[in-house]
Amino acid sequence: MPPILNNRYQISRTLGSGGFGETFLAEDTHLPSQRRCVIKQLKPIANNPQIYEIVKDRFQREAAILEELGSGHNQIPSLYAYFELDTQFYLVQELIEGVTLTSKMQEEGILSESSVKEILTNLLPVLDYIHSKGIIHRDIKPDNIMLRYSDHLPVLIDFGAVRETMGTIVNSQGNPTSSIVIGTPGFMPSEQAAGRPVYSSDLYSLGLTAIYLLTGKTPEQLETDSRTGEIIWRKHISQISPSLAMVLEKAIMSHPRDRYSTAMAMLQALQPLAQTITSNPSSSKTTVVSPPPVVASSAQTIPSTSSPSNQNNTKTIILGSFIVGGLISASVVFGMIMTRSPESSSENTATQQALLPSPSVTTQPIESPIENTVNPSPSPSPSITPQPPENKPSPKQAIPDYYSLINNAQYETSWKHLSPQFRNNSQLHPNGYISYVDWWQRVNFVEIQEVRMVEEGAEVARVETRLKYLMKSGREASHYLRFRLVWDAETNNWLIDDAKSL
Predict the structure, then answer these.
(1) Residue 127 covered by a domain
(2) Using CA of residue 190, residue 193, residue 195, residue 198, what is the dihedral sign?
(3) Relative to the CA of 500, which of 192, 296, 403, 472 has its CA 20 to 30 Å away?
(4) What CA–CA distance (Å, rounded) separates 495 from 484?
(5) CDD domains from the xrefs (predicted)?
(6) Residue that is last in its domain, among 61, 78, 94
């Protein structure tokens, strides 16, 4: 390694090495500050011209992704530069002054529950941001999480996509493919080991990282239940709150369908009574809070049944902290779709009972794409006051608030977010609360993709949403609905009074 790399970076020392190259600490001699940085040298494993050109093209794409991620969130290292030199590839990244979780454990021993919960609380919004860009990290472990000295926030380092690019080879059919699986044995779930990671694969790895911090046990040191295949870990910790234990148990379930679907869902379970955190950006960085699309990364695509969002929805505007929102029982359109599909008659009947609309709301067509702006109807009802009092919560936020209860199976609480008239509608709920719960237990997850205010008044409001339903039967569908909300002064909440398909 030359003392000055690319006629610019003065190498100070080697930080580490591995199968794909080495990592160096360096100084940028082209800057007055002589800024210190980290340089990662990456070596393709295949040595032939055909593979080299493919790797070069993919490396450029992955570098662009790293630049976007680093510029958008201050808990991801910034990418300063990338270049190619003598058939090897280099990334120049921000130096994070801090300590890895592995080193912290070695120095201080196991962490307290409050410390682990704080790390999770501050890291899950970072994962939400990454997933919103269609990226799966694929190598979350204690070595790849650094606690920054300046603000004690966890920083996520060493994304797996670039290393996968370096593992590109040509298969027997002459097509480029990756010869390696990115991830660390023990910390990665079975679907990732099989080369099919999903968003919840990162949550699995994060859950095992938290368990390591609490117990001092690596995944290889933990037993597995021979009957269920689930990891046995709680006997290695003397005391843990039931709420945190339940969150970690769900995060490390062996099958993706049993885990949290999104980072925000896990965060809400971790902080059920607190305001969900969306990020900790610096003043110079923008927070992106759109729900994640189905594309896993530039080199990996997630099947639509595993993704928490719609691939075409590249500019979603619903707050990321509520992408785990769900559907209310008046979701008419899905019921109609289900009745047209060759599904079992029992599911069709239940869907029709739960989702039949009330004729009291007249549907007005959407005249423009749903946006994150207030767009009053051109002819609002004379009885609606133009502006509600300032101390009232936004009616638009009532929809995600309600859905987060649904997706966390808090049916009794969510039932109370429906107006008495809506709850007593015999078409929608022939058996009252029992019909309501019966329907929701058939739904695996409901996603809010977009929300738009149509009318906002002191007592009545109308909100339009785009929703995606994921049923436990494996079916899914996306639809538009318009909700009528009424203000309830007694509970200081907007209640859902009716819904209509658009």
Answers:
(1) yes
(2) positive
(3) 472
(4) 9
(5) STKc_PknB_like
(6) 94
